[in-house]
Design a protein that fits this description.
The complex is a heterotetramer of chains A (313), B (483), C (220) and D (675).
Chain A: H1 2-32, H2 42-52, E1 55-58, H3 63-79, H4 98-117, H5 122-153, H6 158-167, H7 175-191, H8 210-213, H9 219-244, H10 255-282, H11 291-311
Chain C: H1 2-27, H2 31-56, H3 60-87, H4 99-116, H5 118-123, H6 132-148, H7 152-174, H8 179-207
Chain D: H1 4-26, H2 29-57, E1 61-65, E2 72-76, H3 78-102, H4 107-127, H5 133-151, H6 160-186, H7 194-199, H8 204-222, H9 231-237, H10 240-266, H11 271-293, H12 298-325, H13 329-364, H14 375-378, H15 380-393, H16 400-413, H17 421-424, H18 426-453, H19 460-463, H20 470-488, H21 490-502, E3 520-523, E4 526-530, H22 532-553, E5 559-562, H23 580-590, H24 592-595, E6 598-605, E7 613-621, H25 625-648, H26 653-672
Antiparallel strand pairs in D: 1-2, 3-4, 6-7
Helix pairs in contact in D: 1-2, 1-4, 2-3, 2-4, 3-4, 3-10, 3-13, 3-20, 4-5, 4-10, 5-6, 6-8, 6-9, 8-10, 9-10, 9-12, 10-12, 10-13, 11-12, 11-18, 12-13, 12-16, 12-18, 13-15, 13-16, 13-20, 13-21, 15-18, 15-20, 16-20
Classes of the chains: A mainly alpha (313), B mainly alpha (483), C mainly alpha (220), D mainly alpha (675).
Chain lengths: 313, 483, 220, 675
């Protein structure tokens, strides 16, 4: 029973924590660029402002345009119910596995892209075209990375994977594991729309992908979309953190363990934020047609991960 | 008695036409009615033979066993069809009376000779009759005198006569062998006598004889590479005649080959004849299949498909008892469908005034019923269910596999696919499309289509069920060949 | 025995004569020569038939001899000469195979005939067996004529020679086939010739020539 | 017939379809359409009932009719019954749809369509019951014939005749392959039933030959690359409910045949069988979707997606064969179950999409999506149905496409258990490409749905569009329900499949394919678990919570309609919108190596200086190179051979006589040394 509470609690926490993640990355980037930067809480202010504003919807747009933000937000939030944050195994583990997570994310992208096409603006079309391209090209990497994890842990359920690793912590350092981590990291950059694939900060017409898709959104719709993307980022971070280095995650429902787990989670997320921030300050955005090369690299990494796990078995 | 009715009716019709130089139409109608007599006779003979006893007359000179009856039925039915759609019944504006008269005379003589060939027990007389078919039909080909029809008939006459002469050499050699064994008798050339003596005949001479016979009768049957006259003659002849030639003349020639195959097999076992038949049959199949790929003339297309089916039948004869049965079934189906197709092509020619494939478009619009029947017939020719040819080709190939000719059967299947595709392409090109400018639409004297539709209905019926008596007849016929 | 020896020698002589008349066609050009060669050949065949009738005592063969002589040696040559007078103009000037090659290939064909008829000769006990290959040779030679000569009339003559050779073969192998068949064969031969003659006229009136070479519009 | 209950349904089925066919010939007008549709619907329903009984009670239904050569033998076992269900569902929807669809089309078209629709349904239903080679081949050919005439229903459509010819030609080639297969196998015997074939001992080479012939024969019917050439031609030109049947069900007969032969009758084989099928499947899946991306013709696009999904199904079959070779029966059963499940699912959503496309084409008289747009407002119900179909084919949870692909993923993940490492490493590649094709499918359907239904109409056709009549909507929404139901109910379907797979020789452990309390498990011994109902429930719950929370906490919602912003553009015209071509452009560039597009760029410059460009013309075409490399040379070869053979008939009578004599001499000498 308490585990159910923990489950709901942690996903609520995730939901509330997500904007801070974005804020943290922005702040770190600013510091790295010798700007003082906006406070970490800035995204919350933005969300609050957007919720208060009235939404302007194109006369061309249909019901789908207005439904899409809810679909995206809902699917993303639903995922947080099965992602291991602080506690494994979760009671919901049996209901959805890693594949479900991936395809729920695809569901979000699918509707975002449709919404991008709906108002009939060329930028929206451009955005959805590019967005779907990137999403499609990211799929195989994800799948193979899952293959690597699953063949290691004997299951595609996140809880099992994590608890297997906890059982034998050193398995986290096998080459297959590390390669899979690298590939999934690249995919994270692509899916969450970070540099060098996409620049969340830009509104330069010809370079934007995700921003172009949601260009026509305003008010509450925009708020939901932004929030959802923040949650998406968090989900990827959690996956990277807790599937590959699940150290410190609680296996029993006890206050000290949970506190420890929370602390561990915060530390890991912080490290990932730093990594992303550093990366984003170091690298420039890739040309769109260089992106497939990067993704193919990640695909190869994932394949290597699997094969090495075969060889080593 | 039925045998004499069989031979008498066409003779009578010819004689009447010969006597009455005027009222050509009338004589034509008379010959139509008379053409029903042989069908009746065939039915009677069928009943007799199914009782188990061959019918013979004139001192065993004419004799009808199961095999003959199969051919008799085909010949008489196709002859009736041809007479019905011939120039006699539906007056043709474009034909003069003397032409109609000539047609009536010689088409009946043609029927007579073919019937005589299949009922004569004496292989010498059989040869005489088959030689005569060449002559009478060659006269009829240039009914409308034209460069190409004269050319076609000259080629047909020359090649046919030379070929059949070779068959006579074969006959003489066989007779010589027989005489060496049993001394000269007038009965010697009687098939029944030959068969009884066959096991003692001298193998080497029989080999020689069979080669001559195969080349000779194969020429008439349109086996490659002696087939060359066939596309010309069949495409240039008036439709009813080409129907008879393609429908039954080939069958009659094959009948002669079957008769001799029996004798030779008794003398030196089946493998020899089978190998020769497979060789020629496969070669015919190949030639026909590839000639059909880029064919530009729909009557020649039908002619080549006849060559293809002759080849198939030939291969069937080499596939043991199963194969012979299938071959006979295929022979019957092919006679019906191919004669129908040629008669329909005659209607096409009347309307479009050309035999050029490219010039015929929108057939279904121009002549709905003719077009529909043509399409159905063509689907039957390429061996689709529910038509009879599906069953017979199925049985043929199956016999091929059963007798261990695996590779051969696979090759046959491939060639049949090739034929299927080419014929289907040509057919679709004819059926659909806008149609020709300024061409009259609708059917004229659609009544003529009734018997053709009936014919196709029979083929469909044969594709769904083979009646017991027919089955029995075919089995007995096959037994005659593979005794 | 003497008679047998004479019989066989005569038969060989007769058939070789027939063969020679066949070869005759290969190196002459004019129609008249062809006709006379054919007439002589038919005469020889009739003679051989009569001789066989005499030696074997099979009197039906006298009738056959008479038929051959009457129809092939007299009637048909008449008709041919009539046509010859009409179309005599065009000679067999350019055959497919020139004379030398023709004669050589004829020789080869005779050899082929020898090898082909080996089993027959081996089986036969008749005194006429030595002549059988010659008759077969004549068959091949006349086939060669039909193939290699361009004029319709020449082809007809080749065909008639083919029939002669077959008649000869029948007589030599088996002392004649049953009479009824024989008669039927003759009827066919006659009808065939008549029809061919009709076609010669037609060809001439549609193509203004007897050159069969022109008859090649029907292709593929 | 045994089994009283089922017999009645079989009788109804055997009577209803012919009635429909005859009615189509004789009755005109709305009444005629009604009778035809009703007959087809009743027949399909009867088929469904029959199949349900057989599936439920596992006992096969038998029957036989007299026929030339050998009696026709019919026997419906659970495997066949499963495919009969596929036929029945799509057939029922299509027949409902056909009533409204036929309104307004000319009598000739109606007649052909009505007759052949019923005959096709009859053929499909009998195909899965055929129990002897003769029966199987006969029904096979009749089925092809009906489909052929459906393709030819509107012969004046450009390309229709050509497509029909291609279709029938290739199909007949496949028929020949099957013929050879069966009789090589039985040694020419007319086996009385398939079971006898199982007993026939085959040596290695012959078994391989049989397998390859089966693969070719059934592959042509299923339309796997490179035997697919007829499919994108034939499916678009047929009337849409016919296309739905052909894409949804007729292709599946190839799958059925392959399962029947390789799993039921032929028995386990070497590893390369499975690898070959897996490879073919993967190639078909990837190339299929890639070519689909390049299409502007809505129905052609769907046709290419059929190739993709058939490829996915074949991947399942191939994996199953591999696992069976390596004696992993449970995994093999799982892969087979995935393939069969995807067969059913693809039938549902592909039929749905074709029906939707048909509604669009009927309303706008064009199949070119570049001329469409904004239909979601004019035909909202059709749009919704099409959206569901698109989501399903894009494997989005919780719809049916996802359920079956999840199973397939699970079975492929199990590939790690294959002992031979060289084979095992192929599995992740397969997984990756499967994921890629599903991702590309999603992209493709964003394009298809977005360009067709969203934004502003791009042509007057699209502006004038009207919603489809009720009967057509009924057909579509039936399939929508099927898509959702099958998406939520794998826990019900998979044990069923497990039971029928367990009847196949060597796959008895399949009975272990259970589904614990609504959750779908990859395997009894782990390897992942998920529960579509739970996922759906979770989504709904979250949505409710979100809605409640927003209502409670967020400030009141205000909405204003305005012109599209588009970074501050003032005027918006349809021509400014993204087109399907431009949508697919990035992927076309990424996969240029695979497409090998033909491009030509002509720049017209000012005479004075090439820096002043007057006009730029750029043209690029994507032509499937499989055709260029395989079929064009083949055709050229055959034509050349034909021409060479025709040289024989040169016209000279002397030549002809020479042939004869040559034949004579040759045969004379052959006869010498022939035994």
């Amino acid at each position: 029973m308490t585990s159910w509470l923990v489950e709901l609690g942690q996903s609520t926490a995730a939901l509330l924590m997500a904007p801070a993640l974005v804020g943290l990355i922005r702040w770190l980037k600013a510091r790295l660029q010798n700007r003082c930067g906006a406070p970490i809480w800035q995204p919350y202010f933005e969300l609050h402002k957007l919720f208060a504003k009235e939404a302007v919807v194109s006369t061309n747009a249909s019901w789908l345009f207005r439904a899409a933000p809810y679909v995206v937000f809902t699917s993303t939030v639903a995922i947080t119910l099965v992602v291991p944050l602080m506690l494994v195994p979760l009671p919901f583990d049996g209901f959805a596995d890693l594949l479900v997570v991936v395809y729920l994310l695809l569901l979000g992208t699918f509707f975002t892209a449709l919404a991008g096409l709906d108002p009939g603006s060329p930028f929206g079309g451009m955005g959805s075209s590019r967005g779907m391209t990137v999403a499609a090209l990211a799929e195989p990497t994800v799948a193979v990375a899952i293959f690597a994890l699953a063949s290691g842990a004997g299951s595609t359920n996140l809880g099992h994977i994590a608890s297997r690793l906890i059982a034998s912590p050193m398995a986290a350092l096998t080459p297959g594991h590390l390669l899979a981590f690298a590939s999934l990291f690249i995919v994270m950059l692509a899916e969450a729309g970070r540099l060098p694939i996409d620049n969340p900060a830009t509104h330069l017409e010809l370079t934007m992908i995700h921003e172009a898709m949601v260009l026509e959104y305003s008010g509450r719709y925009l708020a939901l979309v932004e929030w959802a993307s923040a949650v998406k980022l968090l989900i990827f971070f959690c996956l990277l953190a807790n599937l590959f280095v699940p150290w410190g995650i609680a296996t029993t429902v006890s206050a000290p363990a949970l506190v420890l787990a929370a602390a561990a989670l915060v530390i890991k997320l912080g490290m990932l934020c730093v990594a992303v921030a550093v990366l984003e300050t170091r690298v420039a955005k890739l040309r769109l047609f260089r992106v497939p090369e990067l993704l193919s690299v990640s695909f190869v990494l994932a394949l290597l991960a699997v094969t090495s796990s075969f060889v080593l078995r | 008695m039925p045998l004499f009715l069989l031979l008498g009716a066409p003779l009578l019709a010819a004689v009447i036409a010969l006597m009455r130089s005027r009222y050509a139409r009338l004589t034509g109608q008379v010959s139509v009615w008379l053409s029903l007599v042989p069908i009746g006779a065939a039915g009677y003979l069928w009943r007799e033979v199914n009782r188990g006893a061959p019918v013979s007359a004139a001192g065993d000179l004419v004799r009808a066993d199961a095999l003959s009856v199969v051919l008799i039925s085909c010949v008489s039915i196709v002859a009736a069809l041809a007479a019905w759609l011939g120039p006699g019944w539906w007056g043709r504006e474009d034909l003069r009376d003397y032409q109609i008269r000539r047609f009536v005379i010689f088409s009946n003589l043609f029927t007579l000779t073919m019937l005589a060939a299949v009922v004569s027990n004496n292989v010498g007389l059989m040869w005489v009759a088959i030689e005569a078919t060449t002559i009478v039909s060659a006269v009829l080909i240039p009914l409308r005198l034209g460069k190409s029809s004269v050319e076609a008939s000259w080629k047909y006459l020359l090649i046919g006569s030379v070929g059949i002469a070779l068959a006579f050499i074969g006959t003489v050699l066989a007779y010589f062998d027989f005489v060496q064994r049993a001394g000269a008798t007038t009965q010697a050339l009687n098939w029944t006598v030959l068969v009884t003596a066959a096991p003692h005949l001298h193998p080497d001479v029989m080999r020689l004889a069979f080669v001559f016979l195969l080349v000779g009768y194969g020429t008439k049957a349109g086996l490659a590479p002696m087939h060359t006259w066939l596309p010309d003659a069949h495409s240039e002849a008036p439709a009813p005649l080409s129907a008879m030639m393609s429908g039954v003349l080939l069958a009659v020639a094959l009948y002669a080959i079957m008769r001799w195959k029996t004798v030779v097999d008794l003398a030196l076992g089946t493998p020899f004849t089978n190998r020769l038949l497979i060789g020629l049959g496969l070669f015919s199949l190949v030639i026909a299949a590839f000639s059909l790929v880029t064919q530009r003339n729909y009557k020649r297309m039908l002619a080549y498909s006849s060559i293809e089916h002759t080849g198939l039948t030939c291969l069937g004869l080499a596939f043991g008892p199963l194969g012979v049965f299938a071959a006979l079934l295929h022979l019957v189906n092919h006679s019906l469908v191919k004669s129908t197709m040629f008669l329909l092509s005659g209607r096409l020619h009347e309307r479009y005034g050309t035999t050029n494939l490219a010039a015929v478009t929108g057939l279904l619009r121009t002549m709905p019923w003719t077009g529909a029947l043509f399409a159905a017939g063509m689907l039957a020719v390429i061996g689709l269910p529910p038509f009879g040819l599906f069953i017979s080709e199925f049985a043929l190939l199956r016999a091929g596999f059963a007798t261990g000719h695996r590779l051969l059967a696979v090759v046959m299947l491939a060639l049949l696919v090739l034929v299927f595709v080419s014929l289907l392409t040509h057919l679709n090109r004819m059926l659909y499309g806008a149609g020709v400018e300024g061409l009259r639409r609708g059917e004229d004297h659609a009544g003529a289509l009734v018997p053709l539709a009936l014919c196709l209905a029979v083929i469909v019926a044969l594709g769904l069920v083979i009646p017991a008596p027919f089955w029995r007849l075919l089995t007995m016929g096959a037994a005659v060949v593979t005794r | 025995m003497m008679a047998g020896g004479l019989f066989s020698q005569l038969s060989v002589l007769g058939s070789s004569l027939a063969l020679v008349f066949g070869l005759f066609v290969l190196w002459r050009r004019s129609l008249g020569a062809y006709v006379s060669a054919f007439a002589w050949q038919s005469g020889v065949v009739a003679g051989v038939a009569a001789m066989v009738a005499h030696f074997s005592g099979d009197h039906a063969l006298y009738l056959v001899a008479a038929l051959v002589f009457g129809i092939k040696a007299i009637a048909i040559p008449r008709l041919l000469t009539v046509m010859g007078r009409r179309f005599g103009g065009d000679r067999e000037s350019h055959p497919y195979v020139n004379t030398e090659a023709s004669v050589l290939s004829a020789a080869v064909l005779v050899l082929v005939a020898y090898s082909v008829t080996r089993p027959v000769v081996a089986l036969s006990q008749l005194p006429t067996r030595g002549a059988i290959p010659l008759a077969m040779g004549l068959t091949f030679v006349s086939l060669f004529v039909v193939i290699s000569r361009k004029k319709a009339l020449t082809q007809i003559i080749g065909f008639l020679m083919l029939e002669n050779s077959i008649a000869l073969l029948a007589v030599l192998c088996t002392y004649g086939i049953p009479l009824i068949v024989e008669i039927g064969v003759f009827l066919d031969a006659l009808m065939g010739f008549l029809v061919m003659q009709v076609f010669v006229y037609r060809i001439h009136e549609t193509f203004e020539s007897l050159d069969v070479e022109q008859l090649r519009h029907l292709k593929h | 017939m045994n089994a009283g209950g089922a017999e009645i349904w079989l009788r109804i089925l055997l009577v209803a379809f012919p009635i429909g066919a005859v009615a189509a010939l004789v009755v005109r007008g709305a009444l005629g359409r009604a009778i035809v549709a009703a007959a087809a619907a009743v027949g399909s329903a009867a088929g469904f009932a029959l199949a349900a009984m057989v599936l439920g009670w596992g006992e096969p239904v038998r029957g036989s009719f007299a026929f030339p050569l050998a009696p026709l033998v019919f026997r419906l076992d659970p495997l066949g019954a499963f495919f009969l269900v596929v036929t029945a569902i799509v057939g029922f929807a299509a027949s409902l749809y056909s009533f409204g669809y036929g309104a307004g089309s000319p009598w000739r078209v109606l007649r052909t369509t009505g007759v052949n629709l019923n005959l096709l349904l009859l053929g499909l239903s009998l195909q899965v019951m055929a129990d002897s080679p003769l029966t199987f081949l006969l029904v096979w050919e009749l089925m092809s014939l009906a489909a052929y005439f459906l393709v030819l229903a509107e012969p004046d459509e450009p390309g229709a005749v050509n497509a029909a010819t291609w279709y029938f030609g290739v199909t007949h080639a496949g028929f020949a392959a099957l013929f050879a297969m069966f009789f090589l196998w039985s040694g020419g015997a007319l086996t009385a039933s398939f079971v006898e074939l199982r007993a026939v001992p085959l040596d290695g080479a012959l078994r391989d030959a049989v397998f390859l012939l089966a693969l070719v024969g059934f592959g042509t019917k299923a339309g796997i690359i490179p035997l697919h050439i007829w499919l994108p031609r034939a499916h678009p030109v047929a009337p849409s409910h016919a296309s739905a049947l052909m894409s949804g069900v007729v292709l599946k007969m190839g799958v059925y045949g392959l399962v029947r032969v390789t799993f039921d009758l032929l028995g386990s084989g070497p590893a390369w069988w499975g690898m070959l099928v897996l490879a073919l499947g993967t190639v078909s899946a990837l190339l299929g979707v890639l070519y689909a991306l390049m299409q502007h013709d809505l129905k052609r696009l769907l046709a290419y997606h059929s190739i993709e999904n058939i490829g996915i199904i074949f991947m399942g079959l191939g994996a199953a064969l591999l696992f069976r070779t390596y004696d992993l029966p449970l995994l093999s059963a799982l892969a087979l179950a995935a393939a069969l499940y995807h067969t059913l699912n693809h039938a549902c959503f592909k039929a749905l999409l074709f029906l939707g496309a048909g509604a669009v084409v009927r309303a706008t008289h064009t199949r070119n999506i570049e001329e469409l747009g904004g239909l979601i407002r004019r035909m909202p119900r059709t749009a919704f149905a099409f959206l569901i179909g698109s989501a399903a084919i894009s494997t989005l949870p919780p719809l049916n496409g996802f359920a079956s692909e999840w199973l397939l993923f699970q079975s492929l993940l199990g590939g790690a258990r294959i002992p031979a490492q060289s084979v095992a490493v192929l599995m992740p590649v397969g997984v990756g490409l499967l994921a890629l094709s599903s991702g590309l499918a999603a992209a493709c359907f964003v394009k298809a749905f977005g360009i067709t239904f969203l934004a502003i109409p791009r042509s007057p056709h699209a502006e004038a569009a009207e919603e489809a009549p009720r009967s057509m909507q009924a057909g579509m929404f039936l399939l929508v329900a099927a898509c959702v139901g099958l998406g939520l109910g794998p826990a019900f379907v998979v044990p069923l499949l497990g039971r029928l797979i367990a009847r196949l020789p060597g796959l008895e452990p399949a009975i272990g394919l259970h589904a614990a309390n609504g959750a779908l498990t990859g395997l009894p011994d782990g390897l992942g678990q998920m529960s579509p109902p739970a996922v759906a429930l979770g989504l709904v719950a979250v949505a409710v919570v979100v809605a409640v929370v927003l209502r409670a906490l967020a400030p009141p919602f205000r909405l204003r309609r305005g012109a599209t912003w588009g970074c501050g553009r003032l005027l918006q015209t349809p021509r400014m919108q993204y087109t399907a071509t431009s949508f697919a452009e990035p992927l076309r560039r990424v996969f240029a190596q695979l497409y090998r597009p033909t491009e030509d760029l002509t720049v017209e410059v000012h005479p004075d200086s090439e820096y002043f460009v007057r006009a730029i013309r750029y043209e690029s075409r994507v032509h499937p190179w499989v055709e260029r490399l395989l079929y064009q040379p083949l055709l050229a070869m055959v034509r050349g051979a034909g021409r060479r053979v025709r040289q024989m008939q040169a016209g000279s009578v002397h030549l002809y006589l020479a042939y004869m004599c040559a034949a004579l001499v040759v045969l004379l000498f052959v006869a010498r040394w022939l035994p």
